[in-house]
Each structure stands twice: as structure tokens, then as C-alpha cells.
Amino acid sequence: MDLGERLELFSRFHDLFREASQRTNLTAITDERDIILKHYVDSLSCLLSGELDGPHTVLDLGTGAGFPGMPLAMARPDLQFTLLDATRKKIAFVTQAIGEVPVPNARAVAGRAEALGRDPETRASFDRVVTRAVSALPVLTELCLPLLRVGGVLIAQKGPLRDEELEAGMRAAGVVGGELLRAVPFTLPVLGDPRTLVLIRKTRPTPNRFPRLDGVPAKTPLF
């Protein structure tokens, strides 16, 4: 697939996204420039991690209206994406977009990360997990690492990262079978907003007691 074909996919998705946003509350970002920069460009910043050199199976945990999963799937047709969210109206839009754009290397799933992490069919089944603006690192590690194969990598998109959150996230990662690879700071083009990619590798199987029951990781973080 050449660049022109990929840009055509983005154009079709953008039209669907704008149209659906008129009817449903998919995003608080409505300015055209901000949509491009804060949704599309920000989503593609996952590629800066160097951890998406496929072929990989990738889970977008908490995809919302399809970010970062849809831009990544359109840019990287060699990767297989599962886009997960608990909000059914958003997953309904993502399902529609996957079919109409089309994006054959992506699929949408309605559900919770805790449930997938306890399901033998999906536990430890992904090479990569990407998340954007989902939760604090201690919560993310408990939700995401059970879903990764040993050797897999969590790519967490964060804003400015406090040392306290990074330290707590690393302690939680140690409990559920992971360790910090690196944190990659950068600025969003044009806007100059600070961003951080936090990369955590799964180094051993997650203990069976994780993730805890639905909602517990967020209500009572490990650290």
C-alpha cells in the first residue's frame, strides 16, 4: 500500500469521524486542526517507540473512538489490531469505520480489560498493548501486562510524566511481571505539547490473581 492509498484511508475515516461526532459524543476535540494533531498525529507517535516493527498482534486498550488504534492500523497494514473499549456507542462507531473505510487488519471488541485479562483465550495473547490517556501507570500495568505474551511490550502514551507516577508504575509492573524499558519524552508537532511514551516489557508470566475484578485496579491501585 503506497502513501496515497494510506492517506485516502485517513480521509475516509476522518469524514466518518466528523459525521458521527455530529450525532454522538465521540470526542471533546472539535477544532479541525486539533483533531488532526491531537488525535491522528498523537496516535501515530506510538511509532516513535521503535516497538511496532511487526509483524505483531496489537491491542489498543481503551480505544474510545478509535485512538490510537485506527490511525496506527491505517498506517501499518502489516500489524493486526484489536480495539477494545467498554463504551458500546464508541465501539459501534469503530466497528462501522473498520467496515466502511475499510481497515481489514483491525477489529473492534466491546468489553473490559479485566475480563479479557482473565479469559484464557485472550490472556497472554498479544505482542503489544497501546494505551492513550486511559489511567495512571500503576493501573495500566495491572490491566495491560496480563494480556501480553512474555517478551511483549506495553506502549503507554502519557502527557508530562511525574517521577512519582513513574516510580509507582514501575513498582506495580514488578508485581505483575514487567520492567521499565525506557521513557521517551517528545513534543507534539506544531502545538508543542509535552508527551511521554512509557515502554514496559513483560519479563515473566503474570500471577494468576491479576488482574483483579472489574473496577478494582482503578479504585485500589497496587501503589
Question: Layout of SSEs?
Answer:
Blueprint: H1 3-23, H2 32-44, E1 57-61, H3 69-75, E2 80-85, H4 88-100, E3 106-110, H5 113-118, E4 126-132, H6 137-144, E5 148-158, H7 163-176, E6 178-187, E7 194-202, H8 216-219
Helix pairs in contact: 2-3, 6-7
Keywords: Cytoplasm, Methyltransferase, rRNA processing, S-adenosyl-L-methionine, Transferase
Enzyme class: transferase
GO molecular function: rRNA (guanine-N7-)-methyltransferase activity
Plain-language structure description:
It holds the Pfam family GidB. GO terms for molecular function: rRNA (guanine-N7-)-methyltransferase activity. Belongs to the methyltransferase superfamily. RNA methyltransferase RsmG family. The chain is an alpha/beta fold and 223 residues long. The protein has a seven-stranded mixed beta sheet, sandwiched between helices. Helix 2 crosses helix 3 and helix 6 packs parallel to helix 7. The relative contact order is 0.14.
DSSP strand (E) fraction? 15-25%
Q: How many helices in DSSP terms?
A: 8
Number of domains: 1
Instruction: Provide the gyration radius in Å.
Output: 17 Å
- Listing every helix as H and every strand as E from the N terminus to the C terminus, the arrangement reads HHEHEHEHEHEHEEH
Please state the second-level CATH architecture.
3-Layer(aba) Sandwich
Keywords:
Rossmann fold; 7 strands; globular; 7-stranded mixed beta sheet; alpha/beta; 39% helix; 223 residues
